[in-house]
Amino acid sequence: MYKTVSKQEFIAAFRDHGRGDQFSHVGLEALFDWLEALEEDTGQQIELDVIALCCEFSEYPSAIEAVKDYMGQEAFEEADIQSEDEALDWLADRTTIIYVPNGGVIMQEF
Fold first, then answer.
1. Does residue 16 form part of some domain?
2. If you compute the radius of gyration of the chain from its CA atoms, what whole number of angstroms results?
3. CA atoms of 72 and 70, how far apart (whole Å)
4. Residue 1 domain-assigned (yes or no)
5. What does the pLDDT read at residue 3?
């Protein structure tokens, strides 16, 4: 049994589960929009599981920060990624990236 939730209900669900700080407000809006588009593209409903989403996705202020966190500082320096675009390309080759309007990214863990 599924219940359709609005964007505000989606955001409130994170707060209600004690995960209100897991993503920025604008990040949660971007995640909601991406999940809605995924439902439309696949024709399958997605269950709202706040804890699973928190385990599956992480928000970063930039793609460079996401790559650094994933690789570690030393490996990041060896990879010689110099720009946000290079970091986005590196991530996009490996996982799903959701662009956040404030310039950040949400990365699906891999």
1. yes
2. 15
3. 6
4. no
5. 79
Spatial distance between the Cα atoms of 7 and 66, rounded to a whole number of angstroms: 25
Q: pLDDT, tens digit, for every residue of 46-57? A: 999 999 999 999
Q: Is residue 2 part of a domain?
A: no
- What are residue 9's phi and psi, to 5 degrees? -65, -35
For 4-22, what is each residue's pLDDT tens digit? 899 999 999 999 999 999 9
79 within some domain: yes
Range of the domain at 95: 7-108
CA-CA-CA-CA torsion sign (40, 41, 47, 53) = negative
Neighbours of 100 (CB within 10 A): 21
Please report, to the nearest 10 degrees, the dihedral formed by the alpha carbons of residues 72, 79, 65, 55 taken in order. Answer: -60
Dist CA 65 CA 20 (whole Å): 21
Q: Is residue 110 within 8 Å of 92, Cβ to Cβ?
A: no
User: How many domains is the chain built from?
Assistant: 1
